[in-house]
């Protein structure tokens, strides 16, 4: 008597990893090639296009609809600041990570005003570059505390660029509670959520809730805009740009 064949149990397939589509914009081919090599080694990232100037970056961002644009500041035809402003102005814009060297570029603050969600330093570790792209693609601002403090120390203590918007009026903060104002000040100083929680003796979840409310009340896109607003509204004096702690 032939025994019936028992089918092998089905092996559940692993869920597909969403791939982050990245556009590289830099006028130096070697920089683009190095970034592409690093990015394409990650299973969850892919380079969908490359641009050698800001105008080309804007065109390719509209055509290819990447998730993230890695944007150099200093490029011909159209600089990275104006290119960032145009890329982030659309109805469903890509998120922009500014590519910079802290020792040379003095326009990072202007780039953040233009809509950049964060920044990469050209000498960052490879894993940090990949993590930065993932963080921004997930809808967060790339503001790790140590890098944020360095940014604040280097740039916000200097006069804002002439192209920067008019400083925010303090009446924009009228709907903000005293506790929210306190948290906004610490965000402007570059503290992370756990550090704010420690400073104010709150849980990290509570701090996250407060920051979500601040984003809504102040119509801020992300944490970067909260940092800028904290400085422009005077909650954090420009002289306080030195790293806290």
Description:
Helix 7 (178-188) crosses helix 9 (204-217). The protein starts with 19 loop residues before the first strand and ends in a 13-residue tail after the last helix. The model is unreliable at 161-168 and 240-245 (pLDDT under 50). With 245 residues, the protein is α/β, with parallel strands linked by helices. It is built from 10 helices and 5 strands; from the N terminus they run βαβαβαβαβαααααα. It has helices spanning 29-40, 54-64, 80-87, 108-113, 126-137, 145-156, 178-188, 193-200, 204-217, 223-232; strands spanning 20-25, 45-51, 68-72, 95-100, 118-121. It is globular and about 75 Å long.
Compact overview of the structure:
The protein contains ten helices and five strands; from the N terminus they run E-H-E-H-E-H-E-H-E-H-H-H-H-H-H.
């Amino acid at each position: 008597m032939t025994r019936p064949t028992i089918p092998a149990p089905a092996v559940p397939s692993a869920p597909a990893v969403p791939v982050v589509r990245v556009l590289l914009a830099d006028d130096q081919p070697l920089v683009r090639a190095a970034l592409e090599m690093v990015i394409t080694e990650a299973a969850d990232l892919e380079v969908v296009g490359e641009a050698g100037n800001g105008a080309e970056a804007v065109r390719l961002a509209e055509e290819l609809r990447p998730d993230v644009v890695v944007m150099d500041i200093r490029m011909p035809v159209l600089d990275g600041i104006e290119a960032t402003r145009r890329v982030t102005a659309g109805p469903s814009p890509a998120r922009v990570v500014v590519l910079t060297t802290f020792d040379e570029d003095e326009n990072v603050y202007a780039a953040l005003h233009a809509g950049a969600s964060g920044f990469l330093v050209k000498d960052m570790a490879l894993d940090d570059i990949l993590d930065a792209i993932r963080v921004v693609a997930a809808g967060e601002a790339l503001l790790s505390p140590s890098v944020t403090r360095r940014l604040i120390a280097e740039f916000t203590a200097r006069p804002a660029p002439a192209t920067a918007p008019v400083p925010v009026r303090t009446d924009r903060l009228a709907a903000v509670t005293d506790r929210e104002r306190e948290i906004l000040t610490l965000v402007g100083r570059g503290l992370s959520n756990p550090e704010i929680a420690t400073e104010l003796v709150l849980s990290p979840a509570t701090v996250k809730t407060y920051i979500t409310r601040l984003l809504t009340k102040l119509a801020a896109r992300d944490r970067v805009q909260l940092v800028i607003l904290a400085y422009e509204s005077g909650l954090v004096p420009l002289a306080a740009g030195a790293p806290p702690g």
